[in-house]
Structures are given as C-alpha cells and as structure tokens.
C-alpha cells in the first residue's frame, strides 16, 4: 500500500511539472487526474493538496514567475471576454422576460424557469460561459501559489498593483522582511484609487499595512502630512483607519492629530472621515480631551441614525479613560441591547469593555446573571454564547456561574435527541468554569454530560474533536478510559453515518 502511494505521488508530481512547464493551467482533465492520484477524488479543488505538491517543486521560482506573467497577460482578456458574453446573455434574458411577460416578483418561480429553459433560444443562458471556468481556475492557481510570493517579490508587487483584490491572499504570505519602503506607496495609491475597500481571509488592507509601520515607523509620523496633502477623501479615511488599528500606544502628536480631526469633522459634510476619527479617538489615551468632545461622545451614545456610532462612542469613552458614574450606568444599560449588525451590538461592546476593566467590571454581575437565566429559560444559545465572554473573564465567579450552566446542560440531556444540542463555545466556557470551580462529574452527571457531548461531537471532523478531548482531560481531569470510550463512540458513529450514505 505504501509503495502504491509513493508511486501515485511520484506520477502526480511528474504530471504537475509537465503541466507547469507547458503553462497548461486550464487543462481540467489533467488537473483532476493529478488530484485523484494524490487524495483519491476530484470533487472540488483541494488547495492544500496542490500547495503540498508545489512545495516539492525544485523549480518553483521559475514556475511561479511563469504563472504571474501568464496571469498578467491572460486575466484581462478572459475577464473582458466573460463580461462581454454576460452582457449578451443578459440581453437575451431581458428579451425572454418580455416575450413571456414574466414577473420576477411572483411568489412561485417554478413555472417561470421551466418556460425559459424549454425555449431552445434561451438554453445557452443557463450554461456556464466559456470564460467563467477559466477565471475559476486562474483563482485556483492563485490559491495554490499563495505561499510562494517570496520567490519573485518584484513581479508580485507588479501583479498586486494591477489586481489587488484578486491577489491579496498572496500578499498575506509575503514575509515582513520582504517589505520595502517604496512598496508603501503602492498601498497609498491603491487607497486613493479606492481599490482596497475589500477584506479577504479576515485581514483588511488597513490591518496589513501595519506591517509597514512596524518596519518603517517614520511612515506613521508622516500620516498627518499626507492627510493634509491628499485631495482624496478615501485616502484620508484609510489614513485615520490605520491609526485606529495600531495595537500600541501612539505618540502624543498623532493622538492630537486624531483629536483635531474629530473636532474638525464633527459637523462636517463628510461623515465617513468623521466616523473614522470617532473610531480612532479611543487611541487618545494620554492627552487632555476637551469637555465639549466628551459631550459629543455622550450624545453619540444615543445616536439612532448610524447604527455603529453608539458602539464607537462607547469604545472612545473607554479608551480616553472616562470613569464617571454616567458612563458606568450606560455600560450597564447597554447589556439590555443584544441586537446589532456584523456581530457587533451594544451588549457585546459593553461586555468587551467591562472585561477590560477587570475588577472594576464586576458591578454588572447581577445583571449578567439575570440575562443568563433569561437566555437559559428561552434556550437562546446565541445569547448565552455572547454572555460567556463575561463568564470566562472572572475565575472568581466560577462557583456562581458553573452550577447555573450545569443545571441547564443537565436539563438538555433529558430532551429529545434533536433538541439537546449545545453550542461548542458554550461547552468550552462550561469546561473552563468547571476547572476553576474544581468540579468533576460523578457517574450520573457524566451520563448526562455524555448525552450532550454526543450531539456536539457527532458532526465534527476528527481533527476538530481533538480540542474537546483535550479540554475534557484538562478541565475535568477525566480518566483516559472515559476519553477513549468517547472516541470509540465517535468512530462507530462515523462508520454508521458513512454506511448510510
């Protein structure tokens, strides 16, 4: 078996090198064959498989360079052709809507699509366009080559400058040591051209550019001057955002710049720059803040026009060190506002700030307990998960909160199988609290906990389950035989589910 595997890998490597030498990047049949040789299927493009193969390529620098040059030449042509074909298709689609007098707002769409697909002239609309697959495979290759950007940094920057959104994943792999002072100008220019407003892999361009400021601190001090010199409001927004994202204390001159910008734009027509300066105001930790600015922030706590401003104002007031009773009362009141947008709400913002206050955040314990009991009564696991951030922040409260969660988990175990599921984050919180409270389940309690664990673990991958097995060992000090029995249950359940499919 091992020999067969080695032979398959060697054959796959040979085929890959031939493909790369010929720059045959759209040979789907050959790519499927290579992937089947390595991992046994071609159901979808397995990025890790291709990256592992490329790591064995002794000519990776040449092949990476070849691909970037190919991308620079091919992408605009394919993109243009695809857009033109889509324009034609949309014209055909519009014609069909008029021909059949179709109302796309109708409740039942089934008959509409049946009519369109039965029309021979319309059949091509529902077929994949020729350039579409090529664009997909170009993106696949970008993902495969993403760890190798350092093999031709100068060419990569050229490609990134031309196609920043498409190639940002490669940028994330570039070692900080390969950053050059002149490259920051590429970022500033792209910001000015409004080409860096996206987010990929959880890293925004404004966060990535912090690496430049880490390497070249002098650029950070140039931000006020660049802000004044540029006519681009978009670049001004990004420059302020870069200051807002800094993870370390800013020099007081930059803090003063943020404060001055906030004061200047508080009544300004350009609210985007004001919003950015509001976010950045939390960085003004060591300068004197005028009372009128404090009042502005106090008013923004109740802003009902822009949804995120109350949260930004809370963070700013916390950042500049406001500790008056009215602000403490607001943090308490905000706990009753769990709804927001983009995973941000007054409640979770308040909890984050209270946790940062450490011992001084304990004054809301009774309120958290009330909200936790209400969420448990409704089995609102999203609400419980949000509150768990506070529960985990105070080990001294473990003896208070752990029994509350345990009583609920025990009641879950008595529900029907499809109703005793438990959110993984809540389970982790419970296990942490149990360790702090020095709680270990007896035989009957373990039986109840095991029922709930089965529901948590059933649909997780073997890799994801390992974290829970480690936590059960570490937090509950369970005997390894119990852990092994649980693992065996998972394996047997996997085999049963696999057999059903």
Report on the structure:
- The mean pLDDT is about 90.
- Among the domains are: about 1-95 and about 130-150, no CATH class; about 365-500.
- About 70% of the residues lie in helices and about 0% in strands.
- The chain is globular.
- It is built from 27 helices and no strands.
- The chain has about 500 residues and is mainly alpha-helical.
- The two termini are about 25 Å apart.
- InterPro entries: ARM-type_fold (IPR016024).
Helix content: 55-70%
Reported for the largest beta sheet, the result is: none
Order of helices and strands: HHHHHHHHHHHHHHHHHHHHHHHHHHH
Q: How many strand elements?
A: 0
Bin the strand percentage.
under 5%
- Termini separation comes to 26 Å
- Rg is 29 Å
InterPro entries: ARM-type_fold
Task: Summarize the topology.
Layout: H1 2-22, H2 28-39, H3 47-55, H4 60-99, H5 110-118, H6 130-145, H7 153-162, H8 164-172, H9 183-192, H10 205-208, H11 210-215, H12 217-221, H13 223-229, H14 233-244, H15 252-265, H16 271-280, H17 291-300, H18 309-319, H19 325-334, H20 346-356, H21 365-377, H22 381-393, H23 398-412, H24 424-436, H25 443-457, H26 462-476, H27 480-500
Helix pairs in contact: 1-2, 3-6, 4-6, 4-7, 6-8, 7-8, 9-14, 13-14, 14-16, 15-16, 16-18, 17-18, 18-20, 20-22, 21-22, 22-24, 23-24, 24-26
């Amino acid at each position: 078996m091992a020999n067969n595997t080695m032979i398959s890998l060697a054959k796959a490597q040979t085929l890959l090198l031939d493909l790369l030498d010929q720059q045959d990047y759209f040979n789907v049949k050959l790519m499927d064959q290579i992937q089947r040789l390595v991992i046994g299927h071609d159901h979808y493009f397995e990025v890790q498989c291709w990256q592992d193969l490329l790591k064995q390529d002794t000519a990776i620098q040449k092949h990476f360079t070849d691909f970037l040059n190919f991308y620079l030449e091919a992408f605009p042509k394919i993109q243009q052709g695809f857009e033109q074909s889509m324009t034609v298709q949309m014209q055909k689609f519009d014609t069909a809507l008029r021909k059949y007098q179709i109302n796309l707002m109708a409740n039942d769409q089934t008959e509409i699509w049946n009519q369109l697909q039965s029309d021979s002239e319309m059949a091509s609309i529902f077929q994949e366009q020729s350039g579409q697959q090529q664009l997909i495979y170009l993106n696949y290759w970008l993902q495969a080559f993403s760890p190798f950007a350092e093999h031709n940094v100068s060419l990569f920057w050229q490609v990134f400058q031309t196609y920043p959104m498409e190639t940002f994943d490669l940028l994330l792999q570039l070692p900080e040591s390969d950053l050059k002072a002149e490259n920051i100008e590429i970022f500033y220019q792209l910001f000015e051209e409004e080409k860096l407003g996206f987010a990929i892999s959880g890293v925004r361009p404004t966060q990535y550019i912090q690496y430049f400021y880490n390497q070249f601190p002098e650029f950070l001090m140039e931000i006020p001057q660049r802000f004044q010199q540029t006519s681009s409001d978009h670049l001004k927004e990004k420059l302020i955002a870069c200051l807002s994202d800094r993870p370390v204390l800013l020099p007081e001159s930059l803090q003063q710049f943020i404060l001055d910008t906030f004061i200047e734009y508080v009544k300004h027509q350009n609210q985007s720059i004001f919003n950015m300066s509001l976010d950045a105001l939390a960085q003004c930790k060591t300068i004197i803040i005028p009372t009128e600015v404090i009042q502005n922030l106090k008013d923004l706590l109740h802003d009902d026009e822009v949804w995120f401003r109350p949260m930004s104002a809370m963070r700013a007031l916390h950042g500049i060190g406001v500790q008056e009773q009215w602000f403490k009362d607001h943090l308490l009141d905000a706990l009753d506002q769990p709804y927001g947008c983009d995973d941000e709400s007054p409640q979770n913002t308040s909890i984050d700030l209270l946790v940062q206050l450490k011992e001084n955040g304990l004054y809301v314990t009774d309120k958290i307990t009330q909200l936790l009991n209400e969420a448990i009564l409704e089995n609102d696991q999203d609400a419980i998960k949000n509150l768990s951030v506070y529960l985990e922040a105070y080990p001294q409260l473990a003896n208070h909160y752990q029994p509350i969660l345990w009583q609920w988990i025990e009641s879950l175990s008595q529900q029907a199988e499809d109703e005793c599921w438990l959110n993984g984050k809540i389970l982790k919180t419970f296990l942490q609290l149990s360790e702090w409270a020095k709680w270990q389940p007896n035989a009957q309690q373990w039986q109840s906990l095991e029922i709930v664990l089965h529901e948590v673990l059933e649909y997780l991958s073997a890799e994801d389950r390992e974290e829970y097995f480690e936590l059960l060992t570490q937090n509950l000090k369970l005997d390894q035989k119990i852990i092994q029995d649980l693992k065996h249950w998972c394996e047997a359940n996997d085999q049963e589910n696999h057999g059903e499919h």
